[in-house]
Amino acid sequence: MQIENFVIDENSPCFIIAELSANHNGSLETALLTIESAKRAGANAIKLQTYTPDTITIDCDKDDFVIKGTIWEGRNLYKLYQEAYTPWEWHEAIFKKAEKEGLICFSSPFDKSAVDLLESLNVPAYKIASFEITDIPLIEYAASKMKPIILSTGISTNDDIILAIEACKRVGNNNIALLKCTSSYPAPLDEANLVMIKDLAKRYDVITGLSDHTIGSLAPVVSICFGAKIIEKHFIIDRSIGGPDSSFSMNELEFSEMVKSIRQAESSIGVIDYTLSEKQIISRAHSRSLYIVKDIKKGETLNESNVKSIRPGFGLHPKYYNDILGMKVKHNVSMGTRLSFEILDK
Question: 107 and 154 share a domain?
């Protein structure tokens, strides 16, 4: 998978996305400053959400439209989205600012009209949000634009994932990634279930990663060990400005530390290689080997009292210990001499 100039594969560094979501808090200036902040924090991309209250729900006060079981408990869906949405007339300015800062900019569309807007801005990829993974017509329409499709699996059953992948492939788009996601805000660490990242990759033969709503950076960093190649985290310039997503969003310092830890985790994984590095070869000098530990005269026999396996590692390999017991030395040998076959009679 390639998004603009960033190649995402098993050998690439992780693609780290700063999710703007509602963290502009109703201000275009804040949105633009947040992009600058995300760049300083080490993000590779900034991601928006493209919807209006009317494209994602309806203005209705019935109980079905009252949020339950989340941090937005008791709020009306329409009113929440009125507060949280990113005005469509801001999108062009946001995309241009991201380009100026050297950040890849893309978005999550929530209906076909959002896809059309994003196409007009030459968006390089589409992210399908967790709650939209069942919207097969939307997925098909976005996938038909033949851009990379990143699917969050926060509420997905296995059947949901299969249907979404099939929708992409049905229109000829095989450029698919799956993100493990826990759709809880914030998400408890003990529900992160990061092992799924590896299973999703194996089961569906796609790039995988993490869309994270936990507090802190532990889950994103650990996810690297399970093969995550994309990490998405909500980003805010300053939690004190408030907003619907502020409580589970990272500020610049926190995001920067997360990026640093992710890069360190990537470098620590390395590759499968049983050859020794130059430093490891040097360190072998501190391993065990066979040494003469008492002065021995010519013709004397080696035994357990005059030869031992000790540090350092310049003598004969300890695997020869039993073989050399009972053998005689060719000449006088002083304590501390490396044992070698050259000083022994055959």
Answer: yes
- Strand partners for 304: none
Buried b (16+ CB within 10 A) or exposed e, 307-332: bbbeeebebbeeebbeebeebebeee
Same structural domain, 211 and 313: no
The CATH number that applies at residue 310 is 3.90.1210.10
Summarize the confidence of residues 281-306 as an average pLDDT.
94
- The residue behind tokens 């994270």 is 212
Give the residue from 269, 294, 309 where a domain finishes. Answer: 269
Asked whether residue 101 falls in the same domain as residue 207, the answer is yes
Model pLDDT for residues 50-65, shown as the tens digit of each residue: 999 999 999 999 999 9
Residue in the structure block whose two tokens are 């059947």: 159
- Structural domain boundaries enclosing 292: 278-343
SS (H, E, C) 118-142: HHHCCCCCEEECHHHCCCHHHHHHH
Q: List the structure tokens of 335.
A: 């304590």
Dihedral through CA 9, CA 3, CA 129, CA 200, nearest 10? -10
Strands 176-181 and 207-212: parallel
Q: DSSP assignment of 288-342, as one string?
A: -EEEE-S-B-TTPBP-TTTEEEESSS-SB-GGGHHHHTT-BBSS-B-TTPBP-GG
Of 223, 239, 269, which marks where a domain is finished? 269
**DSSP label at residue 109:** E
The β-bridge partners of 16 are: 231
Q: How many domains does the chain have?
A: 2
Average pLDDT over every residue of 245-250: 88
Q: Phi/psi at 142 (nearest 5 deg)? A: -65, -45
CB atoms within 10 A of CB 77: 18
**pTM, whole model, 2 decimals?**
0.87
